[in-house]
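Render this sequence as a predicted structure.
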Amino acid sequence: MPDTEVKPFAAAPPITRTPAEAPLVDVMGGSSRHEIRIHEHGFIALIDAMPRLVPQGQTADFAIVQAARVSYGQGTKKVSEDRGLIRYLMRHRHTTPFEMLEFKFHVAMPIFVARQWIRHRTANVNEYSGRYSIMPDTFYRPTVEEVRKQSNANRQGGEERFEDQSRTAAEFVKFLEDSEALYERYSKLTEAGVSRELARIGLPVSVYTQWYWKCDLHNILRFLSLRMDPHAQAEIRVYAEAMYALLQPIVPITMEAWRDYELEGVHLTRLEVEALRERVRGGGTGGLAIENKREQAEWDQKAAKLGF
């Protein structure tokens, strides 16, 4: 017979507790959440951060430097040197020190926004369940002025607005109103005994959901790079901009470097570098040595940004 006796755990090893070298402050200023309201029913709230406590006079940027220093010993000592190190790490794409910081958000958004958001698969997510709970009677509905036309250049995007008092835009808003009216039938059917997991499938993707979303800073910056881009859908871009606004006071040096090198920088391919050389030398057309129209259009946008 195997020995099934439950043996007690060995005595726990002693724990050494080291006091902080300087007073510590809360990066959230003692608040339980920092929230920004979005549209009529949405919001994004920062509810926790790691590190939560930082030495007085510093920001959470210090944790990035702390992680980077382990590679080469004690290293820099001054905040000015910390800024230079963070900018170096960002510029040369040394990403692991940025992964040491984590932030947790509580978000309410339309389901169609959530389905774009969840494509960023590097976060930990726990979403409101329509199987266990009744879906909320809250929907996203743009105004007539906010309805966009389908882009001719971007198959997955919208561009300019319809003309003032456009009948097409008004019809679309009425279409959304009609779809929202399905909520009353959804509610009655659940009360009549239809399971919540089935009843929910008749609701439109404009209905709101909520989730907790936790992610490290490096992958948050990747999310922001895509979702703050002018080509991102407006309804998710506003959440990304709000996320940036929540994080900027907590990691200002990192956000400054990210804007300088990523968001507002210009990345060139080999073909684009060759085309740029031609423009500088005053020879050739300055176009790409390729027939792909989309790639050429992207280069034209970059050249315009560079002032050519």
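Summary. The chain has a mean pLDDT of 91. The chain has twelve helices and nine strands.
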